[in-house]
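RECORD TYPE: protein structure
NAME: C4-dicarboxylate TRAP transporter substrate-binding protein
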Amino acid sequence: MKTTSILRGTALAAVTLSIGAGAALADDFTLRIGAGHPNGPAVYVADVADFFVPEVVRRVEEETDHTITFVEGYGGSIAGVAETLESVENGILDIGAYCACFEPAKLFLHNFPYYAPFGPQDSDQQITAARAVYDQVPWLEEQFTSEYGQVLLGLHGWDNYHLGTTDPWETVDDLQGVKIGGAGPNLPWLEFAGATPVQSTLPDGYLSLQTGVYNGWLMFPSAYLGFRFYEPAPYYTLIGFGAMGVNVLTMNERSLNNLPEDVQTIIREVGAAYEAQAGASLNARQASGLTGLEEAGATISEISAEVRSGWAESLASFPSQQAAEADGRGMPGTEVMQAYLNAVGETGYEWPYEYTVE
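PREDICTED:
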């Protein structure tokens, strides 16, 4: 009986076989998989390590004459958060998990959920809506292959966004001029409050909050707890900007095509399963994150429904603005944003403010 090992490596020096070399052996294949965020605090990465990798290993061993060995590099050990797409494109990684938010130029339109904030609070609804858009507008999936030489295996996301701060605040006016960090596509959400947006990444957040580079973070509970942001910024306000289906798991097209067809099929099927379980996984971590923050001593509060609807209304032009920007770049922006608004409506979710796209 064949044995399969999962090598959890942190450097490419540990890899001696590329997928091409593995194909020559015609039995055991070595694949490099990674993400810029660490396994654990980032749910989409935890699901790669704890679900996707072992499930591919198990199924390939049980259902084919082959075996798979994964070399795993998370937390930027192979590629950083803004390098993963390119690392999959050039073959440094065979498979990569990453957020479109860190590719604001190349994957501008894939950030469409960010362009209509205050959407589904439930991650199952969000992933369902995002998938409906990908299915309705094939351009989104095709772009990964035609421009970046990779194949989309599955979608994932972030759980519901809220706001953590170093200091307490009672009204939106209190946020005027306060520096707040975010991933990029979500920074326009701060305009209503008059806060000062600061582009940043999760790995930089703790030290930046601690040293005053900024005094707040747009962040979901799972990561706010996992990265211990509650220590320098203990005030966590539930705003409900929404869950975001903006993370992807992709595979280098050449690497995939060099595998036997039965192994390719398993990888695609497990990628679809990775997406199917994403919503429940994110919802569970949202709940445990809020509980964990409370147990850790964070001060948790919530804005009123009136403030929330007013905040959403202040961003009324944002979906159309971003759609027009994408159209101007030769992308199907209006089509995607309209499809997203329709898809969210079909989930049964009721917006605090009904966005339209002109």
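COMMENT: The chain has a mean pLDDT of 92.
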